[in-house]
Amino acid sequence: MKHRKILLEENEIPDKWYNIIADMPNKPLPPLDPGTLEPVGPEALAPLFPMELIKQEVTPEKWVDIPDEVRDIYSIWRPTPLYRAYGLEKTLDTPAKIY
User: Fold this and answer.
1) pTM for this structure?
2) Domains in the chain and their CATH numbers?
């Protein structure tokens, strides 16, 4: 029987997020300033997003540490269980595990 629904115990909560961009052969283009159409840096995004979030978005690192504060909230409340997408994996004919 295939297990589709994954529920994590508190001690199984991950401490890092995976950054798929690190493994992409063709990296996405940086965000552009709508007025100049030039790439913007983290300082231009600061009025819109917290700096820690910007750092996560622009890092070239493969693994990003999950802040302890976020992990603490995950241990109290998780919005949904994780579901394995077997149908999508089959449709895409991919060896990847998609959740």
Assistant:
1) 0.64
2) 14-78 (3.40.50.1100)
